[in-house]
Design a protein that fits this description.
Layout (H helix, E strand, L loop, with lengths): L2 H19 L11 H15 L16 H13 L3 H26 L10 H15 L1 H7 L7 H16 L6 H14 L9 H15 L3 H29 L1 H11 L4 H13 L21 H16 L4 H12 L2 H4 L14 H19 L12 H5 L1 H33 L6 H4 L2 H11 L6 E5 L6 H7 L4 E3 L5 E4 L6 E5 L7 H8 L4 E7 L5 E8 L9 E7 L3 E11 L2 E10 L7 E9 L2 E8 L16 E9 L6 E11 L8 E2 L11 E8 L1
Parallel strand pairs: 1-2, 1-4
Antiparallel strand pairs: 3-12, 4-6, 5-6, 7-8, 7-14, 8-9, 9-12, 10-11, 10-13, 13-15
């Protein structure tokens, strides 16, 4: 390899690193739920809480990205930068691996050395380095970016195993990396199809192929089976987990698949992924200049279909586009990510083909120009210089386009505040830093949300949905509430009414400058004054203190005040029934807070103001009675009612006042 080539590939890798690491602590903002899931699982792996071969939460996930992130956490600490740096490094490594693969696929002949053959490898590496699609996923702390890396390495070693020396070591390494793809991401399930199709096609087209490469391929497949065995055995014994995610995204009909195929074809030139986490919404996968190289590359591959490398590139592109064709939300750049190396190779091959067509200078075997050629060398040099200038200008435009679209346009989108849960992360981090003596409450976001968990750094928080309930801290306790007021406009005013000394600590805004969340501190006893006092007990640990009743139009709003006397492991369902002479006429059965504050989470001393609504629009005139109680959802068995002293009563409900429907 010439020094000039080493310098160029080094510069390309520096460019790839710059696009993937620059402002990585700021862009993307926040930490999306899926990234936070990986971070949470990586923490569990690092601390030894669990180290599974397959993660069953969040519709299941393969282990590679999580385990690599755990290693990075151990070295660099548990930060958003570390999570995303892992992906950035994987993306940079893929650029280097693609360069090696391209050199193997398109080795320069002595007459072409320094020109077309080497040009494909440098052009492919550069194309992938600046490809917006690949840059974007290299900056997300998620698993898809590992698939193209493993697949590129697998093919690089496969090519060595079936070419030249036919090294057994290369076959072993290829088998390892082919198996490793299945540890990365669900879309890698198509990799065995790609491998089988490619090898099968070569066996059919080349009678000598199996005789020359059979031993190496047997070694490769055997190693791949051994490496995949731990995960394969687990999934074989837990097939429901294997199919859980694919079954939720698979396209159900031929018409949908056909429509998806059209969308996937259009994504290269017309309209790409609409998901703001995967793309600048709607941006085509290729800018206009790269699209030229891609189209020429496709034509060149078809024209040279008898060449093994051309067949591989077309198969790679086609098979690894299927995950998006066969699932919903096409085109889906995440599911198609394994096609990006093939796209870069085809584009590079297209540009190299153009150069080869123009550069027709005759050469000697060592690649030097012939004497006759030297007499007309001036004209050739001008023509070539013009073409190379156009090529370099176009590539510079593509690099600029990616940088501008990502950092200036996508990075300035106010919508990324929600796309990447930036508000949740900031709010959780603010609450994490509150004094340890304060109890943390959240509304309406669930404290189990992975972004919230990461931001809290494992600090305990209690959550509820303030649009349907209000959880009040135990008497005498200091508490801090983080209220996403944009989504829950009620809780702040209610807290101020119940806690006269409540004090707003900080108000957070979104990227438009609008108020997003408020952090408020409360202390002292809550001033709870239900309209009606009941003082009944349900089971051993729940007190029904009283209720408020309001009627507006055709709806009766009932706020029931529960007090936790003792913690329970049971998640009871609350029923609010309206009963007339004809029996049950209206009901609202739900866990407290519409499921946001289940009874198993209640803490001793907490008061839960739980809201229910009964629709009376269709009821005939007459008197009706309101009944409240709790039951086990699984069995329907009701919780027995006790009196204020805890003595059992012969009842499974508490009877409220009668109402009249005029």
């Amino acid at each position: 390899m010439k020094r000039s080539e080493i310098a160029i590939i080094a510069a390309i890798l520096l460019l790839a690193a710059g696009l993937r690491v620059y402002r990585l602590d700021q862009l993307p903002p926040g930490l999306h739920y899926d990234e936070a899931f990986n971070a949470t699982m990586a923490h569990r792996v690092l601390t030894g809480i669990e180290r599974p071969i397959f993660f069953t939460e969040d519709l299941t996930e393969e282990p590679m990205a999580i385990y690599v992130t755990a290693l990075a956490f151990g070295v660099l600490g548990e930060t958003t930068f570390t999570i995303r740096l892992v992906s950035a490094l994987a993306g940079i490594a893929t650029v280097a691996a693609l360069y090696a693969l391209a050199r193997a696929l398109f080795p320069p002949s002595p007459a072409e050395r320094g020109r077309a053959g080497v040009g494909v490898s440098l052009l492919a590496a550069f194309t992938l380095a600046i490809l917006y699609w690949h840059v974007n996923f290299s900056r997300l702390g998620m698993e898809p970016i590992f698939t193209p890396l493993m697949l590129t390495l697998a093919f690089a070693f496969l090519w060595r195993a079936i070419s030249g020396q036919r090294s057994a070591v290369s076959a072993i390494l290829s088998g390892i990396f082919f198996a490793a793809t299945l540890y990365t991401y669900k879309a890698a399930l198509f990799v065995p199809i790609l491998f089988t199709a490619f090898i099968g096609l070569e066996v059919l087209l080349d009678r000598k192929f199996w005789a020359q490469n059979g031993r190496g391929l047997v070694i490769l497949v055997g190693v791949a089976i051994l490496v995949f065995a731990p995960l394969g055995i687990y999934l074989g014994t837990h097939p429901e987990q294997f199919w859980e995610r694919p079954s939720t995204v698979a396209s159900p009909s031929v018409a949908t698949i056909a429509d998806n195929a059209i969308k996937v074809a259009e994504m290269f030139f017309l309209r790409g992924d609409e998901n703001p986490r995967s793309n600048l919404p709607g941006r085509p996968a290729l800018d206009p200049f790269l699209a030229i190289g891609f189209v020429v590359g496709i034509i060149a591959c078809l024209a040279r279909i008898r060449q093994r490398a051309s067949r591989l590139l077309l198969l790679w592109l086609g098979v690894m586009s299927l995950p998006s064709v066969l699932t919903d939300f096409a085109p889906h750049f995440g599911r198609n990510i394994a096609a990006t190396p093939a796209i870069a190779l085809i584009t590079a091959f297209g540009f190299a083909t153009i150069l080869r067509k123009i550069d027709r200078r005759p050469t000697t075997d060592d690649g030097s120009a012939t004497t006759g050629d030297k007499r007309s060398l001036t004209d050739d040099r001008w023509r070539l210089s013009t073409v190379y200038c156009l090529l370099l200008t176009g590539l510079a435009f593509s690099a600029f386009s990616t940088a501008r679209d990502y950092f200036a346009i996508w990075g300035a989108r106010t919508g990324s505040f929600d796309s990447f849960d930036a508000g949740y992360l900031t709010l959780a981090q603010k609450l994490r830093d509150r004094p340890a003596s304060e109890t943390i409450y959240l509304s309406p976001v669930d404290a189990q949300h992975y972004t919230i968990q990461f931001g809290l750094a494992r600090r305990v928080a209690h959550s509820f949905d303030g649009r349907h309930a209000l959880v009040l801290a135990p008497p005498g306790a200091s508490a801090t509430y983080g209220i996403v007021t944009r989504d829950d406009p009620r809780s702040l005013a209610r807290l101020r009414a119940i806690f006269p000394d409540a004090r707003v600590i900080e108000t957070l805004g979104d990227y438009t400058g609008s108020a997003y969340a408020t952090i408020v501190r409360v202390e002292g006893a809550a001033k709870i004054a239900p309209q009606k006092i009941v003082n009944a007990r349900l089971g051993a640990g729940i007190e029904l203190m009283g209720y408020d009743l309001a009627r507006a139009g055709d709806a009766i709003t009932l706020i029931v005040y529960w007090s936790c006397l003792a913690e329970t492991r049971e998640n009871y369902t609350v029923f609010a029934h309206l009963v007339g002479a004809q029996g049950l006429v209206a009901q609202d059965d739900t866990q407290p807070g519409r499921g946001s504050s289940p009874t198993a989470r209640w803490q001793i001393g907490q008061v839960i103001a739980d809201e229910h609504r009964l629709n009376v629009a269709a009821l005939p005139r007459g008197e009706y009675q309101i009944e409240i109680g709790m039951y086990h959802l699984e069995t329907g068995a009701r919780v027995r009612v006790r009196d204020a002293n805890g003595a059992p009563m012969e009842s499974d409900r508490v009877v409220f006042e009668r109402i009249t429907v005029p």
